[in-house]
């Protein structure tokens, strides 16, 4: 896998579908998946996010769903800790940038199909 040549230990999933399948297929033994959304299903009622269960069993992968509302009590602490992690380079922000208002439709479609990695941005004007 190009982005994770040593496999994946932890994966935060809010896309589902092919992205989730690819992540689970490349998980290391005892990998963990946190699922807080399945954007791939929001616009396609026939599509279901499901990893290959043989991977889950053989690699003893833990998949845990959660809602952010479950953790509102620690939100201020999270923001402080995350700001420090970003500042110290412990967490990298991935951005997928498209340029020009004419690319908004394809960027939006790609977002809901899970074609991008990281945050999707469409820059429509220079700063």
UniProtKB/TrEMBL annotation:
Specify the domain of life of the species encoding this protein. Eukaryota
Q: Where is the signal peptide?
A: none
The UniProt entry, under PANTHER family, shows: OS06G0602900 PROTEIN, PROSTAGLANDIN REDUCTASE
Q: What is this protein called?
A: Alcohol dehydrogenase-like C-terminal domain-containing protein
